[in-house]
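Ligand: iron/sulfur cluster. Inputs:
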Amino acid sequence: MTGIFDFYRKDRWPHMFCPGCGNGIIMNCLYEAFTDAALDIDKTVFVSGIGCSSRIPGYIFADSLHSTHGRAIAFATGIKLGNPRLNVIVITGDGDLGSIGGNHFIHACRRNLDLSVICVNNNIYGMTGGQQSSATPHGFVTSTTPLGNIEYPFSLSALAASAGANFVARWTIGHVKKLTKSIRMAFEKDGFSFVEVISSCPTHTGKMNWMSDPVEMIRWLKDNSLSLKKLEMPKDPLSASNPLDLIIQGKIVIGTFRDANRKSYLEQVDGGDKGGQK
Ligand code: SF4
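Predicted complex:
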């Protein structure tokens, strides 16, 4: 590849994203990470489910599969097992991965299947009208929780790490360099690698909550993040501030949650079961 338009299909422009959507930043980070990792685009398949971010693979000059809602991991699993030489990259959203496809997600982590998954967490079902998802923060107003969400959100990164994924990191769209580096590391890691990106949906989350200005939203995400390294772990694991929560003390916890070298599913298929963690 010699430039971004060898990666993205100019013939499919203009894209369908709203002005100011975080997907644009993520697409740029994805391109940079893919180029840095020097992956062969002819040996790569992008898989997505349903949602705004799941439209990203359709803009990439590569084989891609836009599958059914919540089933991106299931389709990706089939592709990887059918042809293990392919790089299989999943682009998904919080509703697609954590809500409708939650069971596929946790079991792929548990198997440590060799997939790279980028989850665009905009805290909402954006494409279908701004409904609450399993990642919607407590108190957020959505089209289905007009008085504020009374449920607590999944921490998708904590879920992936505890289920057994080899690599897990979370950043926001305000952390472009760290996000790009983590996506690259995810591409280079054996086993299941997961990068969660806290993104913006100015059209729904922004308008219904604090702000609809996209720049303000990015600034807010950046200013309201807390590095995992600076987090003081509570002595009582049952305390209100669970160290695995998505938001602690009003801040989004960011960082690398896990970087392990447990044998991947395919390493064990190819090399025999040498067992457990390294
Ligand atoms: Fe982006 Fe939200 Fe528009 Fe979807 S609805 S394209 S997530 S701003």
